[in-house]
Amino acid sequence: MTTERYRMLIRQGLEALEQNDTLLALVLFEDACKLADTPTAKSCLAYCLAKEKKQFQKAVAMCLSAQQKEPNNSLHYLNLGRTYLAAGQKLKALRALRKGLKMERNQQIIDLLVQLGQRKTPPIAALPREHFLNRNIGRFLTRIGMR
To answer: Distance between CA 30 and CA 13 in Å, rounded?
Structure first.
């Protein structure tokens, strides 16, 4: 009985996440974690905590814990990337999402990466992206519509 209820809660929670209803998903994953503290429930709950309650440090720790238990599950990398995005850490989010994509092909990760977009190459490739010439020339080219 409890395993059936657990599976139902996880399924409904994942459906709620697909609909961007993180508040409902938070409640469902909290109930699922009470029944069985699995890495899947933990990483999904972590993303919901970050999104709804702004508990970013706790959420990142929970996602990393889930990754250690199941390192080849791309769902954990997706949730870690979403958590980093909610915390405003785009670079860490991109790293986590790309690493998850290496583990297995996950359409949600692909969609999120496409949504985030690709950076354009720097105008002067020999210089680092952060160099003031690259930044200023890039801004200028964007303003005049050449990028």
So the answer is: 10
Helix, strand or coil for residue 141? helix
**CA pair distance 4, 84, nearest whole angstrom:** 32
Helix pair 56-69, 39-48: axis angle to 10 deg:
160
Per the CB < 8 A criterion, the answer to whether 78 and 110 are in contact is: no
Q: Tens digit of pLDDT for each residue in 93-144?
A: 999 999 999 988 989 999 999 998 877 889 999 999 889 999 999 999 989 9
Give the rounded distance of the alpha carbon of 114 from its chain centre.
13
Is 1.25.40.10 the CATH number for 2-116? yes
Per-residue model confidence (pLDDT) at position 136: 94
Q: What residue segments make up the domains of the chain, in order of their start?
A: 2-116, 119-147
Between CA 45 and CA 50 the distance in angstroms is 9
Residue with tokens 């200023």: 136
